[in-house]
Amino acid sequence: MDDLRRLIKENRIPLYRKMDQYRHYIIAGLLLLLLALPYLLNSQYIMRIIIMICVYSILGMSLGLITGYTGQTSLGHAAFYAIGAYTSAIISVTYGVSFFITAPIAACVAALMGLLLGLPTLRLSGTYLAITTLGFAEVVRMIFLNWERVTNGPLGISRIPRPVFFGIELTIANNGMYYLVLAFLLLTTLVMHFIVRSKFGRALTAIRDDEVAAVMMGVRTTYYKIIAFVVGAFFAGLAGAFYAHMIRFIDPNTFTFDTSILILSIVILGGMGTIKGMFLGAILLISFPELLRFVQEYRFVLYGLILVLMMRFRPQGLLGGQQKTDYAFPKGMKVDNQ
Amino acid sequence: MKKVISLVLILALVLVSMTGCGSSSTDAGSVKIAIAAPMTGDFAEYGTGFRNAVELMVNEWNENGGVLGQQIELVIYDDKNDGEEAATIAERIASDDNIMGVVGHFASGVCMAATPTYQETGIVNISPSASHPDFTKEGDYIFRNNTVINVEAEAAVAIATELYGKSKVGILSVRNDWGTSTAEITKELVAAAGAEVVDHQEILDGTVDFSPNISRLHNAGAEVIIVAAMYNVLGPFASQYQDVNPDIQFVGFSNAYSRQLIELAGDSAEGIHFPTQFFDGSTDQNVVAFVEAYKEAYGSTPSSLTAQAYDSAGIILTAIQNAGELDRAAIRDQVAGVEYNGVTGYTTFNESRDSVRPFTVVKIHQGEFVEAR
Amino acid sequence: MVTKKRWGERMVMEQLINGLTIGIIYALIAVGYSLVFGILRLVNFSHGSVYAFGAHMSLLFISMEFGIVPAIIASMIFTGMLGIAIDKLSLEPLRMKGSKPIAALITTIGISYIIQNMLMIVFGSETKSFPRLFNYGTVRIFGVNVGSTQIAIFFISLVLLVALTAIIHYTKVGLAMRGVEQNAKASYLMGINVNRVVTFTFFLGGVSAAIAGTLVSGYYQMVSPGMGFMPGLKAFSAAVLGGIGILYGSVIGGLVVGISETFAATYLGGSYRDAVAFIILILVLLVRPNGLFGKKGIKKV
User: Fold this and answer.
1) A23 occurs within a structural domain
2) What ipTM was assigned to the predicted interfaces of this complex?
3) Where in the sequence is the signal peptide annotated (chain A) (predicted)?
C-alpha cells in the first residue's frame, strides 16, 4: 500500500485527482466566467476577438473530429464553413427568413456536402485525401465566384440581416452575438464530448491509430469515417452561418485556403484528439495576429516562426498526448498513471 | 497538472489580450486619424502606398500647426486585406474616442466587413479604393473617394470609340467586384456609342498567362481592348498581346495608373491611354509639390490610388478644421459638404457620398505618362 | 465559314502549345514535391515559396550584372541552400523526435509564411519586371507561330527532367535515394547516411524550384512574392495526379494540368481556370485512388 501511495505521489496524481474531483465546480466556474465576460471586459474590440475565438473553436472541434480523432487530414475545411455561410445568407436575404431557421438549414446543407464529399473520397487515404479536400474547397470557391444567379458572383452578398431573437436584434454592442455564439459553442462542445466518449468515438480513435487493426476488430471504418465527416461539416456549417450574420458581408474571398490552414493549425497546435486543445489553439492562433501588431510588417514572419517553433518543441500539440488517461476506470479501482 | 497548466495558460492569455489590446487611451489633447489598409499580404504595396500618402498629409498639417491648434496623431492598422481582421480593427478604432476619421481598407469586400462598425459608431470612413456599388449604402458616415465606375467607364469607352475611332471592342476584366461591374457597364456603354463588343474575357486575380484570352480576343477581331484590371494584369497582357497583334490598342483604368506599369510592359506600354483624375506630370502646384514630397520621402512616384488616399486624409482634416470642434457628427457633415481642391482634382461628394471629379486623359509616350491631346 | 474553321483549328494548336509550355513548368515544380515526398512521405508546402525565392534570387543576381547564366547558377545554389536550411533547421529535429507527419506538414506551412513575407519585406510586394531570357523571334510549327521562348522553356525543362531522372537512376547518391525511398531503416543499416540523402534531396528540390521560378519569370517577364502560391497548389495536385513520389508521373500530371487549364480558360472562360486542375484531380482519384501511376500503400501525410 505504501509503495502504491509513493508511486501515486511521484506521479503527481493527487493534484490531478483533486482536479478531477472538483471538475464540476471548475467547469461551472468557467461557465460563469464566460457568461460574465462581457461585463468584466467592457470592450467591443475584445469581445469581437473573443467571438472569433469561439467561432474558430467550433471550427477546430468540427475538424478535430475528422482529423484529430479519426486521423483523416482535411485541407479544405473552409469549404464547409463557406457553404454554411452562403446557404444561410442566401436564404435569409432572398426570403427574409429568420436566422434561427436558416442556421440549422445551412448546417444541414453543409453536412450533406460533407456526405457527398465523404462517400466517394473516403477510400482515399493520407495525401490523396488531403489534396482532394483541398481541391474540393477550391472548386467550391470557384462555384461561389461563378454561379452568379445564386451567389451574386464576385459582388458577394451584402447587408445580411442580423439575427433577431424575440424582437431583439442581436449585435456585438448588446452582447447578443456573444451569447449566441456561446450557445453554439456549448452545443458543439457537448455533442463532441458525448461523441468522443461513446462507442462511436472509440471506433474513430481506433481508425486513427491503426486502420487495419480496426477493420480486424470489426469496425466499419468507411461508415464511421463518413459519419465523422458529416458531423464535422455540420458544425462547420453552423459556424459559417453565424459568421455570415455577424460580419454581414461575404464574398468568395472570405473563405480561402488560408482559412482551411488556420483551422488545421488550431487542431494540431491544440492537440489532436482533444477537445480542450481546440479552445487553446483557437485562443492562440486568433489572438496572435492581434497581439503581434507591434512588429508591423514582420507580423506574419513571426506567425510562421511561431508555428515552426511550436511544432519543433511540442509536435503533439499543446494538450496532445494526454488522452491516454481519459478512460474512466471503475470506481474504487486503483491504478497508477503509467 | 497539465489541466491546471492549461487552465492557467488560457486565463493568462485572455488577460494578456485584455491588457494588450484593450488600452484605448482617452488622453485628451490629441486629434487622431486612422489608416487601415493591407501592410502585409499580397496587396501590401497598395496599403503601404496609402499609409505613406496619409503620413505625408498629416506631417504637412502638423508642420503648419496641426488642426484646431492640436497636433495630429496618425494611427496605423494593417488588415492584410482580410475582412475578418478589418472588422476587428474597425472595432478597435471605434473604441478610441479620439479618432476622428478613418482612411481606408483596400478591397471592397474588406471595406464592407468594416463599414457596419464605422456606421454604428458614427465615425467618418473614406475609402480611396472601394468600388462595390453597395459600399456607401451602409450609411451616411461611409464615403468613397474612388472614381465612380460608370463615369470612369464612360471616359474609357470614349477613348476607345472616339479618340481611337475603333468600332470592334474587346474587354478583358478581372473577376472581382470591381472588374465584373466595370465590364458590365462598359458593355452597355460601348453599345450605346454605336460600337460592338466582339468578346469579353474574364481572368482571375493572379493570372500571369493571358494567351487563351488573347487568342479569343484576337480571333474575334478586336481592334481595341478595354482592360479593367490592375497594372500587374495590364502590363503583361499588353506585352503578350503585342506579340500576336502589334497593331492592337489598349485602354486602361485609373487603377492601373502606376509607374510599375511602364516598368512591366516596357515598349508595349507605349500608347496606352487612361482616363484618370491624378496625373503625376501635371503642372498644378498641388500635384508638383505632392509628387516631389512623396519622391523625397519614399523614393517612388505615387500611383493614382495613392493620390486618392492622400486626398482622403486631406478631406478629413479639412472637415475637422471646418467643423471647428472635435465632434464626429459635425465632422461627418463637413465631409459631406466639402469642396476640396486636392491632387486628384476638385472634389465634392454627391448625395450617395461618391466623389465627383472630372477626368483627364493620360497616355504613355516614350516611357512617360503625358497628358493626351 | 472556311476561315472560321481555320481560326478554330489554329486556336486549338496555339493553346495546345501554350498548355504544353505551362504544363512542363508545372512538371518542374511538381518534381520538387515528388522528390521530397518519395523520400520523406512529406508534403512540402514550402515548395511554392521556395520557387518564388528562386525567382527573386535570379532577379537579384541578374540586376548585379554578373551575366545571366552565372546569375541563374548562383540563384540555383542559393535556393538549394535554402532547401537544405529548411530541412536542417526545422524538419530534421522533428524526424529525430519521431513526431507525427502532420507536425512536419504544419512546419512547412509555417516556413512558407516566413519565406513569402520576408520576400515581401525585402523586395516589396509589387510585381517587378524581369528581363526576357531568350528572344529569337517566333518559329512556325504546324501553321502556328510559336515563340522561341516557349520552345526554349520546353526543351530546357525536358533536359532538366531527364537529368534529374539520370541522377536518380545512374548515380550512387541516386541509388541511395531510391534505397531510402523504399526502406529508410534498412538503408541506414546498410550504411547509407540517410540524413545526407535527405539533405541532398532538399537541395535538388530547391535547385529545380529555382530553375522553374527563373524560367517562368523570364517567360512572363515578371516576379512577385505571391507568385508561388497557386502554381504551388496546382503543381502539388499535378504530382498527386501522376502518383506522388513517381517522377514521370509528375511530368505527365503537370502536362495534363497545364493543357487542361489552358483549354478551360479558352473555352469556358478565364474564371474557371484555377478550378479545372482540381476537378480533374478529383475525378482521376475517384477512379484511381493512388493517382495515374501511383503505387499502393502510401498512407501518411
Assistant:
1) yes
2) 0.87
3) none
Would A335 be classed as within a structural domain?
no
This prediction has a pTM of 0.89
- Any domain includes A220: yes
Give a yes or no: residue B366 inside a domain.
no
The mean pLDDT value of chain B amounts to 88
Where do the domains of chain C lie, and which CATH numbers do they carry? 2-287 (1.10.3470)
Name, in order, each residue with C-beta under 8 angstroms of B338's C-beta and a sequence gap of 6 or more.
B315, B318, B319, B322, B347, B348, B349
Is residue A78 located within the same domain as residue A208? yes
Q: What is the pLDDT of residues A115-161, one digit of tens each?
A: 998 887 777 877 788 889 999 999 999 999 999 899 998 999 988 99
- B37 near C CB under 8 A: no
Domain of residue A5, residue span:
1-42
Weakest-pLDDT range from A110-119, A166-175, B172-181 = A166-175
Show the cell assigned to A317.
500539440
Q: Give the count of domains, chain B.
A: 2
The helix or strand, by DSSP H or E, that contains position B174, with its residue range, turns out to be strand B168-174
Q: Does B45 touch chain C (CB under 8 A)?
A: yes
Residue that has been written with the C-alpha cell 439575427 in this structure: A163
One domain, residues A164 and A25: no
Report CB contact under 8 Å: B211, C120. Answer: no
Query: Residue A223, class by beta-carbon neighbours within 10 Å (0-12 exposed, 13-18 middle, 19+ buried)?
Result: exposed
Q: Tell me the CATH number at B312.
A: 3.40.50.2300
Q: Measure A280 CA to nearest chain B CA, in Å.
A: 6
Q: Contact, B331 vs B124, CB < 8 A? A: yes
Gap from B288 CA to chain A (nearest CA, Å):
30
Element (H, E) at C32: helix C2-40
Structural domains of chain A, count: 2
Closest-CA distance of chain C to residue A65, Å: 15
**C124, C226, C270 ranked by CB distance to B207: nearest:** C270
Q: Is B201 found in the same domain as B89? A: no
- For testing contact with chain C, the best of A116, A123, A131, A303 (most C CBs within 10 A): A131
